[in-house]
Amino acid sequence: MIAKPALVLDGLEYTYDSAPMRFDLTVAPGEWLAIIGPSGAGKSTLLDIIAGFLTPERGRVTISGADMRGVPPSQRPLSFVFQENNLFAHLSAVQNVGLGISPRLRLSPAERQRAAEALQAVGLVGFEDRKPGEMSGGERQRVALARAFVRQRPLLLLDEPFAALGPALRRDMLALLRDLRRQAGTMTVLMVTHHPEDALGFADKVAFLDKGRFVTVGPTEETLSASGIAAVERYLGTRALA
Ligand SMILES: Nc1ncnc2c1ncn2[C@@H]1O[C@H](COP(=O)(O)OP(=O)(O)OP(=O)(O)O)[C@@H](O)[C@H]1O
């Protein structure tokens, strides 16, 4: 039997004030897809529709074969990591991760142990009782990733998760994400980024979004090198502005 696609976007339409954005896309299970494109292209809007924060005017989101119409964000089989503010400021690192295991703040010893192991997996041994305000931006994103992985949802949405970090740290975080995915088995990732180099070496495919439409979707290196597509080349700076 052929596995169901991890994600299908079928004629999704959403309009703010401008022309409707329209998204059609199929993502295979276990694929890591980077979504790039100019500012205002609709990248965050797209992730917000998939997560259920925005309701499309038309079309359908299907995750692992299940139609998401009417399914609230908290019930969708996915995790979401934003650029910032992923954590509850008044909770410790281990409690923030624990929320991915159970909505109760009072964790059982076994749950606390699991949350502590998740922190260990992201290199934060000794940070269990620290609050977000007592951690660096990179450390906070490690906690957010730890929580996303203990949730064990098949789809992970990342909206510029490492954008506030310097280039070396960003690479470390991408390598950490790659390792966590390997340990977790099959996890499909959609990652919005402004840095094509974040996709190279990590993402299997790149989808280029422009003015609310996918212009091209294909293997990372091929798509980023010689696309021949004016919008992509303008974005990458490999073509003079028309
Ligand atoms: N709440 C809103 N109200 C009205 N228009 C909005 C709203 N949010 C976004 N838009 C518009 O929708 C379009 C897509 O925005 P979106 O944030 O999805 O783009 P993006 O590709 O994520 O941009 P960036 O790379 O700058 O984060 C833009 O034209 C933006 O101005």
Automatic annotation (TrEMBL):
One of its GO terms (biological process) is thiamine transmembrane transport. Keywords: ATP-binding, Cell inner membrane, Cell membrane, Membrane, Nucleotide-binding, Translocase, Transport. One of its GO terms (cellular component) is membrane. Gene3D superfamilies: P-loop containing nucleotide triphosphate hydrolases. It comes from the Bacteria. InterPro entries: AAA+_ATPase, ABC_SmlMolc_Importer, ABC_transporter-like_ATP-bd, ABC_transporter-like_CS, P-loop_NTPase, Thiamine_ABC_ThiQ. Residues 2-236 form the ABC transporter domain. It holds the Pfam family ABC_tran. GO terms for molecular function: ATP binding; ATP hydrolysis activity; ATPase-coupled transmembrane transporter activity. NCBIfam families: thiQ (TIGR01277). Belongs to the ABC transporter superfamily. This is Thiamine transport system ATP-binding protein. It comes from Afifella marina DSM 2698.
